[in-house]
Amino acid sequence: MYSSEDLERFYFQYQTEALPHGESLQSFCVKHKVPYNIFQKWFKDTRKKVFEVQVDGVPEINHAEKSKTSDQPQTVSKISNDNPVRIWIDLRINNGLHLSQKNLSYQDLVRMVENLEGLC
């Protein structure tokens, strides 16, 4: 029996190894002896767990966080606004993958999401 974590790792492996080379998911399942119908059901069930969110307002940074971020290189936005919004994203996936990115502009966030879309 395959656990959800096993199927997540398998899907990540497919996205990183086979998808860039144009291999179909079905042939990848056959090659790795994973029943496609089990994977397909898991994928369909887990896709429903993704929700769209909307964030209102700008988080305040306390003095301790300001001193931490001032030591790191700053990304400069090409668009100059009077009050540019900076974004901090911390993504943890239950397969152990952890992505963290600080001081993103909106354009940087869009670029990051576009790069991650290839994995989904």
How does this model look, in words?
By secondary structure, the chain is mainly α. The chain has two domains: 4-47; 73-117, no CATH class. Helices cover 45% and strands 11% of the residues. It contains five helices and two strands. The chain has helices spanning 4-18, 25-31, 36-47, 63-70, 106-117, and strands spanning 87-92, 98-104. A two-stranded antiparallel sheet has the order 1-2. The longest helix has 15 residues, at 4-18. The chain is elongated. The mean pLDDT is 76. It comes from Bacteroides cellulosilyticus CL02T12C19. This is Transposase.
Number of helices: 5
Shape: elongated
Please, how many domains?
2
Major β-sheet strand ordering: 1-2
Uncertain regions: pLDDT < 50 for 5+ in a row? none
Question: H/E element string?
Answer: HHHHEEH
How far apart lie the N and C ends? 24 Å
Let me know the number of strands.
2
Mean pLDDT across all amino acids: 76
Name the helicity range: 40-55%
Radius of gyration from the CA trace? 19 Å
- Structural class determined from secondary elements: mainly alpha
Largest sheet: 2 strands, antiparallel
Share in β-strands: 5-15%
Organism: Bacteroides cellulosilyticus CL02T12C19
Protein name: Transposase
